[in-house]
C-alpha cells in the first residue's frame, strides 16, 4: 500500500499549474500517493506554522519561522524578475506617513518588505481578492496586490511603489531575483519518502512547463483558474516557468538575502541558511552504491 502524502498549495494559477500533472495522472510514484488541498497563501503559512501538512506551499519569508519542522524544497518556486506585488492607491492621492494599508497576510514576502520600507503604516490583513475593493471603497488608503491581481486593476487606481523596487533597495548591489513562493516538507517524513516527494513534485513542474499549452487549456476548460487564457499565459510566464522547476544557486542566494534582511530588521530570531535546509537528495545515490 502506498503512503499518503498531504500536499497543500494555493488556488492561484501558478500553484495549480505546477501541481496538476500529478492530479491528472501524468506522473505518479510507486511508493507515495498525493492528496492535495488548495487554500490562500496566508492560510497556508499559518498551517505550516502548525505543522498541518506533509508538504505545504508557503511564502519564502515564512520559512525561517518553520525551519525546525520543515525542510525547504527546491521545486515549485516562484520568483519575481523585475516584477512582483504592487502597492496601489487611488489616483492623485498623496499617502500620509501613517497611511492605512491592506496586506494579504502577516507572513508573506510582500508584507515583510513592505513593513521594512513603511514602518509607520497602519496594517490590516485581507484576502488578496478583497484588497482592490478595500482601496476603492476608502476602507484603506492603499493595498498590496499579489497573484493575478497585478495583471489588471481599476483605472481609478495607480501604483505607488513596486515591491520589486523595495527589494532592489534592500538586497544591495548583487542582481538577485525576488523570492516569493516556496514549498516546504515536513522533516519527520523518512528521508527516502522526502526525496521521492521532491523528485515527483519536480517532475510535475517540469512536465507542466514542457506541456504548458495543453495543461493551460485543460485548466481553462475545467474552470480551475480565475483568469482567461491570455492572462493565464502572461501570469505563468511570470511565475511558473523554467526557473520554477528547481532552484539554482542564484535563486538560493536570493533566498538567503531575504532571510538576512528579515533577521537584520528583527523579524526572525536567528539567521537561516537556505542551502543547509534543503533535502539531501545525494543520500539516494550513496544508498544505492
UniProtKB/TrEMBL annotation:
Sorted UniProt keywords: Lyase, Menaquinone biosynthesis
Matches recorded under SUPFAM superfamilies: Periplasmic binding protein-like II (SSF53850)
Entry EC no(s): 4.1.99.29
Active site (UniProt): 147
Enzyme class of the recorded protein, top EC level: lyase
Record field: catalytic activity: cyclic dehypoxanthinylfutalosinate = 1,4-dihydroxy-6-naphthoate + dihydroxyacetone
Pathway info: Quinol/quinone metabolism; menaquinone biosynthesis
One of the record's GO molecular function terms: carbon-carbon lyase activity
InterPro entries (UniProt xref): Menaquinone_biosynth, MqnD
Record bears the keyword Hydrolase: no
Coiled-coil region(s): none
Family to which the UniProt record says this protein belongs: Belongs to the MqnA/MqnD family. MqnD subfamily.
Protein name: 1,4-dihydroxy-6-naphtoate synthase
Amino acid at each position: 500500500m502506498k503512503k499518503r502524502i498531504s500536499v497543500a498549495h494555493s488556488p492561484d494559477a501558478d500553484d495549480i499549474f505546477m501541481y496538476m500533472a500529478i492530479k491528472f495522472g501524468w506522473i505518479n510514484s510507486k511508493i507515495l500517493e498525493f492528496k492535495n488541498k488548495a487554500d490562500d497563501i496566508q492560510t497556508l503559512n499559518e498551517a505550516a506554522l502548525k505543522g498541518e501538512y506533509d508538504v505545504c506551499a508557503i511564502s519564502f519569508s515564512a520559512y525561517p519561522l518553520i525551519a525546525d519542522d520543515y525542510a525547504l524544497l527546491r521545486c515549485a518556486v516562484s520568483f519575481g524578475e523585475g516584477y512582483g506585488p504592487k502597492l496601489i492607491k487611488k489616483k492623485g492621492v498623496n499617502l500620509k506617513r501613517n497611511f492605512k494599508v491592506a496586506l494579504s497576510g502577516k507572513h508573506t514576502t510582500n508584507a515583510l518588505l513592505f513593513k521594512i520600507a513603511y514602518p509607520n503604516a497602519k496594517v490590516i490583513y485581507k484576502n488578496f481578492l478583497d484588497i482592490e475593493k478595500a482601496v476603492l471603497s476608502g476602507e484603506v488608503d492603499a493595498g498590496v496586490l499579489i497573484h493575478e491581481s497585478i495583471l489588471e486593476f481599476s483605472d481609478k487606481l495607480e501604483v505607488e511603489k513596486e515591491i520589486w523596487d523595495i527589494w532592489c533597495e534592500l538586497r544591495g548591489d548583487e542582481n538577485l531575483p525576488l523570492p516569493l513562493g516556496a514549498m516546504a516538507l515536513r522533516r519527520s517524513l523518512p528521508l527516502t519518502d522526502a526525496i521521492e516527494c521532491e523528485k515527483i513534485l519536480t517532475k510535475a513542474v517540469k512536465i507542466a512547463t514542457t506541456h504548458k499549452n495543453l495543461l493551460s487549456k485543460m485548466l481553462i476548460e475545467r474552470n480551475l483558474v480565475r483568469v482567461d487564457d491570455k492572462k493565464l499565459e502572461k501570469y505563468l510566464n511570470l511565475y511558473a516557468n523554467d526557473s520554477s522547476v528547481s532552484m539554482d544557486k542564484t535563486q538560493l542566494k536570493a533566498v538567503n538575502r531575504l532571510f538576512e534582511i528579515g533577521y537584520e530588521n528583527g523579524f526572525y530570531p536567528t539567521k537561516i541558511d537556505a542551502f543547509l535546509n534543503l533535502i539531501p537528495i545525494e543520500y539516494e545515490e550513496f544508498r544505492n552504491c
